[in-house]
Here is the input.
Amino acid sequence: MIRKALERYIPAMQWGKTYNKDVFSGDLIAAVIVTIMLIPQSLAYALLAGLPPEMGLYASILPLMAYALFSSSRYLAVGPVAVVSLMTAGALGSMGLQGSEYAAAAIVLAFISGLMLLVMGVFRLGFLANFLSHPVISGFMTAAILLIAASQIKHLLGIQAHGRDMVTLVGSLWQNIGQINPATVFISASSIGFLIWSRKGLKPFLQRFDLGPMLTTILSKTGPLVVVVVTTLATWLFGLNDSGVRIVGTLPQGIPPLTVPDFDAELWGKLGMSAFLISMIGFVESVSVAQTLAARRRQKISPNQELIGLGAANVASALSGGYPVTGGFSRSVVNFDSGARTPAAGAFTAVGILFAALFLTPLLYFLPKATLSSIIIVAVLSLLDFSPLRKAWEYSRPDFAAVAVTILATLVFGVKTGVSAGVVLSLALHLYRTSKPHIAVVGRVPGCEHFRNIHRHDVETCPHLLTIRIDESLYFANSHYLEEYVLDTVADSPELKHVILMCSAVNDIDMSALEALEEINSRLKSAGIKLHMSEVKGPVTDRLKHTGFFDELSGELFLSQHEAFAKLSCN
Here is the structure.
């Protein structure tokens, strides 16, 4: 019993039973490739978050091991990612913190985010992420990518600039455009050019040398590592740092430090909402990627277990000097394509990052910040996609409004305001749409038992019988609309004797809607018209029976609309 409970919350106990040499080989190869990607990315994303580069390495060690133990996804690769790094910078940048206080706040942010995810996972609250609609997520991602790209221009050009929103950033960049450093621009242009080429051109180039498929695959992912090595060597050999090229400088060497988050209540209060948004967006994106990859091999994941896995990863990051982490799209796809079979691949990746933290950090002293920004730019711009805007415009103008408002609010007012505006607008649009549900007068299609809208099809009707189909659950926001619709329609039909509410699409009726139905029944009864209901679903029927509604109903409850029409059209 205890073992089963542990296996439920620690999936590693399940897949560990069948772990063998073949699985180990696949995980190890995938780990080598992902490690090569993650070392430069972790440094770059820490820079994006406004943190010391080593915190990116710290966030890529213990969190990966924790996630490997508690995750249900076998392929998701967690660690620092661009969007969460931007959100971290947005959350902390507005607080006016500097230096060690800024880093300490990032640790607290990871800890709060981890606790929120863990609580949601234990209490199975993953449904809360549904409040972040796809249009909002798409709009936010588009705006976030543009903000990330704009925030890195200062490093690409070697100038000073500041700002957490697009307006401030562009204005600051324009004011300092005359301070461009030629050497920095050369490093940036060369790095970006090579990285873009390496995405599609490096593998075909390597295949010419008959290195074997495995080695070719590994080396084809080394583009970011190559630009790190080459630009670092060039900066050291030619003393480019003396010419104004900004470098990373001294990085601490050794294992991640054991850190205890600050438990200051005021700080937690300021970071609470940001932590929640980071948790939700990270969870939604991670689960989306994890489900997509799992489906390719006919496997499944548990969203609530993913909450626990991501929560454990963020708590582990906070305890080891890191900042918020989540699943990365590009790394996860590479992890999958490289042959990963279990979450152990993430643990092996953590060992590779630990090796880098122990032995390679002194070699990164002359690493140009422009190189890290180039890695960020190429990584995020490859994800830029404006098609959701076009699709939303063509399919649903309200959804287009949600996408557009989220993008504009994020660009103009910053990350937190943009997401919040998108969520509020989505909920408001949902309430508006459902407050006026689709309701149709229907008749019977000749020769069959189907009923369709009288304005769309040639159907059979009866002058003393009115059938109204309700295509939405009934609740407080639309109950008054239903009442008005029924009574207005009845007023235009002087011969009417029966009204049937066809409820095949009604999944729920709340208290306000029940009162509306009682009022409709009472008003029709006083006018000598009977109210009937058909195709009411079982759970809804049970609830209405408990209230005594059917005892007061002037008409009957029919199992099918055909049965109701056949009986009442003859009366």
Remarks:
- The chain has three domains: 25-129+136-157+176-385, 399-435, 439-568.
- The chain has a mean pLDDT of 91.
